[in-house]
Amino acid sequence: MTNQADGFLSTKHLLGIKYIQKKDIELIFRTADEFKQVINRPIKKVPSLRDITIANLFFENSTRTKLSFELAEKRLSADVINFSAASSSVKKGETLLDTVNNILSMKVDMVVMRHPSPGAHFFLSKHIDANIINAGDGTHEHPTQALLDAFSMQEKLGNLSKKKIVIIGDIKHSRVALSNIFCLQKLGAEVKVCGPPTLIPKNIHHLGIGVEYDIDKALAWCDVANILRIQLERQDIKYIPSLREYAMFFGVNKERLDRLDKEIVIMHPGPINRGVEITSDVADSDHSIILQQVENGVAVRMAVLYLLANKRGNVLGN
């Protein structure tokens, strides 16, 4: 186990927020602060990972996360290999372990993977030597999204201890929700979820969070509203009557925010279904830090990659 005092994480992999410590999160945030300075310079690259080869393995479609990781890797001067299951031997029946071992035989040091099966990353971590970063596993976890969300909240509000965060939307099918809950709790925030009863897992209160079915009460309670989309692609049955009715009863719009006696921070991990879970006048308002989330995603992923590579020295490469 590495020594955090020397700028190291307590773990070899980022499999989920559940498996890291508060000190790890704080170290990632401090490192991301420095990398955010880097990506706002005229010259945005540093040589920190120039001897590291990273494979991006996406067994599910992704645009934002894949682009964010690839940009973070290139900003760190890593060598990057991109793998898509749609055009691979996975379609011919090759196992996950065989696929990864074939890639690792090309001397890959780190693997960033998205996979539809919960626990796929944990399984791999028991069989290969490379560092593994979970870029999403089914409906389980999405740790770097939670880190960038919490980093963005902290940047806006300062210390998150005792801050009230509500996660609104399709909690049942969301890996973002679970990772956010774990991360925010480790940082001392109070967390609630809000949505239709059919989209709230039955035993979620066992995680020590509140459950609210009234969107207006949830917004009146919170300091931050993190709004999730309805994940129709993960639903094998209909959980809501229609998107129109969902928007009516759970959509965050300007009228709802105008009724509050305070200003709250609006977030969304994307992609946004405008007019369903959030209206454009809210998504594009001064309340919103959605674009900051995107920018912070690159800095946070740079920090995770850098720290997992166990690099010593000045992260700014000066």
Keywords for this entry:
single chain; 318 residues; alpha/beta; Rossmann fold; five-stranded parallel sheet; four-stranded parallel sheet; 9 strands; 14% strand; disordered N terminus
What is the count of β-strands?
Answer: 9
Distance between the termini: 28 Å
Can you give the mean pLDDT? 90
Kindly identify the CATH topology of the largest domain: Rossmann fold
| CATH arch. level architecture of the largest domain | 3-Layer(aba) Sandwich
- CATH class (first level) name of the largest domain: Alpha Beta
Q: Regions with pLDDT < 50 over 5+ consecutive residues?
A: 1-5, 311-318
DSSP strand content: 5-15%
What order do the helices and strands follow?
Answer: HEHEHEHEHEHEEHEHHEHH
Structural class: alpha/beta
Radius of gyration: 20 Å
What form results from the Cα inertia axes? globular
Q: At the fourth CATH level, what is the homologous superfamily of the largest domain?
A: Aspartate/ornithine carbamoyltransferase
* Number of H/I helices: 11
Physical arrangement of strands within the biggest beta sheet: 7-6-5-8-9
Task: Give the helix proportion (percent range).
Answer: 25-40%
Number of domains in the coordinates?
2
